[in-house]
Amino acid sequence: MRCLDIVPPPANAWRHERIKYVTGDVCDEATLDALVEGADCVWHNAAAVGPFHPRELYFKVNYEGSLNVVRACRKAGVPKIVMSSSPSTRCSKLVERCRREIAERGSTERKLRDS
Predict the structure, then answer these.
(1) What are the residue ranges spanned by the domains of the chain?
(2) Which residues contact 110 (CB under 8 A, 6 or more apart)?
(3) Fold classified for 2-86
């Protein structure tokens, strides 16, 4: 199993000889090409979620990154892709409420992540 994430795995990540952690970006086509080569199934869960990212990042990661995953799988002949999503793709009122609350508190993604 290969696991791609934009950040390195934490020190307490599950370790097993059949798990390979790869630090990279779904927007990098070369990384995806190498990652999916020889795979018989790809689970795509990568996404920018939450109300605190610039809108451009959501488009880049969630839309273009997903297209890159599909393209890499087609190129490598991967027969199965399992796509996942997040509630924030359907809960626009909740996202807007969260954005307002974050703005009122002066919170940022870094503050939320570090708390």
Answers:
(1) 2-86
(2) none
(3) Rossmann fold (3.40.50)
pLDDT, one tens digit per residue, over 56-78 is 888 898 889 999 999 999 999 99
DSSP string, the chain: -EEEESSPPPTTS---TT-EEEE--TT-HHHHHHHHTT-S-EEE-----SS-S-HHHHIIIIIIHHHHHHHHHHHHT---EEE---GGGT-HHHHHHHHHHHHHHT--HHHHHH-
Give per-residue pLDDT as tens, 77-113. 999 999 886 655 555 565 566 667 666 766 555 554 4
CB 21 within 8 A of CB 13: yes
Q: Which two tokens stand for residue 73?
A: 């799988």
